[in-house]
Fold these 2 entries.
Entry 1:
Amino acid sequence: DTAVSQTPKYLVTQMGNDKSIKCEQNLGHDTMYWYKQDSKKFLKIMFSYNNKELIINETVPNRFSPKSPDKAHLNLHINSLELGDSAVYFCASSQDRDNYGYTFGSGTRLTVV
Amino acid sequence: AQKITQTQPGMFVQEKEAVTLDCTYDTSDPSYGLFWYKQPSSGEMIFLIYQGSYDQQNATEGRYSLNFQKARKSANLVISASQLGDSAMYFCAMREGNTGGFKTIFGAGTRLFVKA
């Protein structure tokens, strides 16, 4: 029974397309996050929601839009995909925003061709 | 400015020996948390250990301990009795408090190779 599940695991798509990545956690955590890991393994926070409220919104292109329908779900929608969007996207959750350790999803490897 | 610095891009250690992975951080927030995560070649991110800025004692979790030196702003990870399965990328991270917007930021990582 996966604690933080992301779908899909792999996503290959053409430039200009719109795609979504879904994330669900069954841990009862209040806070969820999206991170981007680039080809050099650097992890950068993108967004965070606490009980469906957006609390962190880093400088990312506005083609990226998060949505949290409830506190167990956090989805990431990307419009007009570009080559530079190719990366691994990780969803994570924590008990609350004073996180004492994330539980990460397995990651979504996005390849834009 | 870099808030989390991991100066060792790669490290080698002999199996069964101890290894220290370095991490220094920079924050003016009095309340913060420090973390280490492991990323094996399979790609998943695994939480290892947490240290709060007000914790008096160094955190330990099994073979992992965090050497917290607050005045020096360092949070080194010590892995005792290295195993082949410890070969992975290790990330140091810091979560700032209210003044930092509760963000958790990661260092660039250290790749650890355990030799048989």
Entry 2:
Amino acid sequence: DGGITQSPKYLFRKEGQNVTLSCEQNLNHDAMYWYRQDPGQGLRLIYYSQIVNDFQKGDIAEGYSVSREKKESFPLTVTSAQKNPTAFYLCASSWGLAIKGNEQFFGPGTRLTVL
Amino acid sequence: GNSVTQMEGPVTLSEEAFLTINCTYTATGYPSLFWYVQYPGEGLQLLLKATKADDKGSNKGFEATYRKETTSFHLEKGSVQVSDSAVYFCALSELTGTASKLTFGTGTRLQVTL
């Protein structure tokens, strides 16, 4: 069964702690993305990666970090520098093709709550 | 920069009613346009897409037409079901190398009642 997995589904952390969210895909996609979703807002792009060992900042990268050491994995670390980390985090992937209509496939999301 | 504007929700309809969710966009180039659907507690699923002017995307009874002259991509369905209750997101994409960056609207919650 091909798809994107994110774990855990719910995550609780104390303020000031770093936390890493997992994202794994077995779709053989080159490109991967992290989005943040807040109530009443659309999704906002945090980071994206076109290929292994390469990634770029999205619109709201401050307070976050990523790595892309393997094609199938794109973990996101929410650092203590992120001012308001409580949100729903979504990972996505797509074919690494410069073509129009190249859709993204989304994981089920991780809801992070910082206490 | 690019932006997407959707009508605010919630939209509440009776089963079998006609649905329209408005979406307009601002883009510097010629983006691709998408509608994604999100069921409670889940990630997003692609509903339909269009890649050029006058293209019509369709899936599961939903349709949307890429209107370049009005910069719109309104979602329609002739007869909604209770199972269509979800949040609908309009989005546009711009190519960045081999990645496809999506810009989303704020989402429109649809509630369908019996």
